[in-house]
Design goal:
5 helices, Nucleotide Exchange Factor Grpe, Chain A, domain 2, single chain
């Protein structure tokens, strides 16, 4: 086995001096180097945190964009859904059926059922894309966060003041985000 002193004597003097300098700087950094190192670590940590925040924010924006990609198309289809509702109400209020023959009543009934099936299919398709109908608000307190007041009318009774008297257009959510506010008439 070799003696450590013999190994050091065999090495060139320049390598020994260089090894001693490296050993000294590793064990006892100067205050300037320590300050620079702390500053570099701080900059690194801040940059890393900023990058992580950026990465999370862009990932969230990307998922929101994908989630609400069809918002414009669904919003454009809402008037069609409203027309279906109005037509269904008109079918329900129709009182001219009493004067028609049994055959005509059956044909109109078949048309109404077909119409209703198309309406339900449209609503189911939109629901699969994230559309959700707001709860009916008639008789409830007016809520500025979900409703838009079209007009105020005198309340039929004292307890209906500040409450929704009629709903003109229903409100909708798209993936828990309000797509359209419900348009209502409020009692005053």
């Amino acid at each position: 086995m070799q003696n450590p002193n013999e190994t050091a004597q065999e090495l060139p003097v320049e390598e020994v001096l260089e090894a001693e300098i490296v050993a000294e700087t590793e064990t006892a950094p100067t205050p300037d180097v320590a300050g620079e190192l702390a500053e570099a670590k701080d900059k690194y940590l801040r940059l890393y945190a900023e990058f992580e925040n950026f990465r999370r924010r862009t990932a969230k924006e990307k998922t929101d964009l994908i989630k609400n990609a069809g918002e414009d198309i669904i919003k454009a289809m809402l008037p069609i859904v409203d027309d279906f509702e109005r037509a269904q109400k008109a079918f329900d209020k129709s009182s001219d059926l009493a004067t028609l023959s049994e055959e005509a009543k059956k044909e109109i009934d078949a048309l109404q059922q077909g119409f209703s099936l198309i309406q339900q299919k449209l609503l189911r398709t939109l629901e699969q894309k994230g559309l959700k109908l707001m709860d009916s608000t008639v008789g409830k307190d007016f809520d500025v966060n979900e409703q838009e007041s079209i007009t105020n009318i005198p309340a039929p009774s004292e307890d209906m003041k500040g409450k929704v008297i009629d709903e003109i257009e229903r409100g909708y959510y798209l993936n828990e985000k309000i797509l359209r506010f419900a348009k209502v008439v409020v009692g005053s």
